[in-house]
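Moderator note: this is an archived Q&A kept for reference. The question asked for a predicted structure of one protein chain; the sequence and the answer are reproduced below.
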Amino acid sequence: MSSVSPLFVSGAEVWPLIEGGKGIGVSTGQSSGAWASAGGVGTFSAVNADSYDADGNPIPQIYHARTRKDRHDELVKYAIDGGVAQAQIAHEISGGRGRLHVNVLWEMGGAERVLCGVLDRTRGIVHGVTCGAGMPYRIAEIAAKYGIYYYPIVSSGRAFNALWRRAYHKVSDWLGGVVYEDPWRAGGHNGLSNSENPDVPEDPYPRVAELRTLMNSVGLNTVPIIMAGGVWCIDDWSDWLDNPEIGPVAFQFGTRPLVTTESPISEVWKRKLITLKEGDVGLNRFSPTGFYSSAVRNRFIEELEQREQRQVAFTTEPIGDHSVESSYGMRGRTYYLTLGDNARVESWLAQGFDTALKTPDSTLIFVTKDRAREIRKDQADCMGCLSQCRFSNWAANPRGTTGKKADPRSFCIQKTLQDIIHGDDVDDQLMFSGHGAYRFADDPYYANGFIPTVAQLMERLLTGR
């Protein structure tokens, strides 16, 4: 059995057990407040969190503006109001115990506006901010402005080195810790670089030891590293404790807190998680962010895989082997295919995939008419939830566009994540999860469908199991 000792985090001594932040209504004030109340670090998400009406009902995030820019402003307001609501709930539940952190994604639309808007209205309640999904250079300056600690999420020592040299060395006093998120095992979006093989997971120990060596070289010997991604129990990491190669260390739990009574996800979602098998969670690259992400393999992912497979290259005039004329698009435009690709298209047409959509890579994908209408509508309804979106071609710049064609091989991430947290559909929506979720089914703690409270889970984790 492993034993952990309290650690100084965000200005207080707490258990080195941190709840990972999960956006779009998944990491709430209920769960993070309970986690902090048990003596750990609770993390609520300010990524389009829910706010509530006078009766305590979630306010639907409905967009009324006609332009993407104006809808984006609506989204920012929803996000700020939701983040403030969750912070207040978490603070009340925590009773002043533990620590409370807010989580934001640097690549979300209006990240800086949202974060500052939440922190303006929650002074003294929030103790730290975790931030990943991109290179959050400005997070240090923002944290210092509000007198809270910052925790960048990185997947390599090289990424932290770039952040340190460019910005963090100027604001080192407020660096509360560095979150190392394993890019092969964590849920949600992952920080795999182009030089890393998504199919060959690397051992996190040498990568974290390298990060510690770098941190020590710039005087950050006492700043903890927070291990995230693939963390199930402390017993698995006993050789990391009191290890000078790793230094002070805490552990972040993202997937396990989903299956607690305080977790806001549906009972259907919880039951799905505790029945997963090893391999049911996989990496994919369908996200409109362009990042790899880890999600449960369900009909939603399978449809995206099939959509991508029903794809052929085209030319707009006959060139070489592209000599077969076709006009399958929604607007009846003429394209030229090879003889072999045309035969594949004919088979897809026979199956009902009779509408072609053009991608930014001079290819066509084939879907049903209903799916094509849905894709076009989702693209048109874009509310700018990302700093730049491959699906809709929105970008948070003066032109409001990436300058590229919208990509129908992706999807509206805001829509599906809102649908799964506010409904029971776990088959046809995106279900993010860490790769270790299969351990719910193997762990005797969850026998007979047992779902613990956060306090019970924390008590279990402190035994090392």
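Archived answer notes: The chain has two domains: 7-278+440-462, 299-421.
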